[in-house]
Amino acid sequence: MYPFTYTKAADTREALDAGRRGGRYIAGGTTLVDLMRETVEHPDTLVDISALPLREVTVTERGGLRIGALVTMSEAAAHPKVRSLYPVISQALELSASAQLRNMATIGGNIMQRTRCTYFRDVSADCNKRDAGSGCAAREGFNRTHAILGTSDDCVATHPSDVAVAFAALEASVHLLGPDGERRVAFADFLLRPGSTPQREQALRQGELITTVEIPALPRPLKSGYLKVRDRQSYEFALTSAAVALHVRGGVIQEARVAAGGVGTVPWKLPAVELHLVGERPSESLWAAAAQQAAVGAHPLAHNGFKAELLKRTVERQLSTVGGTK
């Protein structure tokens, strides 16, 4: 681990001042500390923001939900409003990590976590995300767990967050505070596809801080849920996952929100699946037909071609679980 300085911000102003000078924000530290220990990350200054007042979960006037950036994963998953309004979020959080990590890790930190690509974490391997311009060892290496959607010549790493898949499906937004004031970014625009600049992973500006994640009000009744398919049942990252939210009225699907994880360089919204569902009556044949659209545009690598079919089956299963057949 490289030497660094540590400061604890007493309030938002102190945090922003330190961030503007190049400090890296840290709260639970469940990802950044690991990366520092492995010498993947070596920030000069850590700014502890755990004392900031960003720990509330509130219902908006229109019936949406705001989750503070410093709410822990376990707190968010157990919150009665999260569980009742958007169970897909609670389920995604509870399937994300061990209980010990969920008690430490925050919502803001979770969506900011970096890839679990083994080549990114191996400082002897070429990785454009870690060292821009060095190459991507995963493209020609063992890439069974890597992305099949949103990849580029420079990067094929997946985004590891489960709850980010739920946020993508629900079309959440991220509220930011920085030296230039407040701004709001659609979740779809917050996490960036690699393109030719894989080292830039979020749409954050220098010194900006995540304050809340907001989920918009969606029509009721709304049924939602999260399915994660992985190599082992406990504490493992997704091979594929599916977040589904359906609004059914009068026996017809009025709105559908679907996103996938484990297969994309970012949480992957599935508009073709959604379009196939809206205006139709729930049925097993509909779920199967819609799920066939899930892997449109996929570009499998040498060892992960199975993910395209697994993604279709994962989406179909979760559509059936959430939507039923009546």
Automatic annotation (TrEMBL):
Signal peptide: none annotated. The keyword Oxidoreductase applies. InterPro entries: CO_DH_flav_C, CO_DH_flav_C_dom_sf, Diverse_Substr_Oxidored, FAD-bd_PCMH, FAD-bd_PCMH-like_sf, FAD-bd_PCMH_sub1, FAD-bd_PCMH_sub2, Mopterin_DH_FAD-bd. It comes from the Bacteria. Transmembrane segments: none annotated. PROSITE patterns: FAD_PCMH. Residues 1-220 form the FAD-binding PCMH-type domain. Keywords: Oxidoreductase. GO terms for molecular function: FAD binding; oxidoreductase activity. PANTHER family: OXIDOREDUCTASE (PTHR42659:SF1), XANTHINE DEHYDROGENASE SUBUNIT C-RELATED (PTHR42659). This is Xanthine dehydrogenase family protein subunit M.
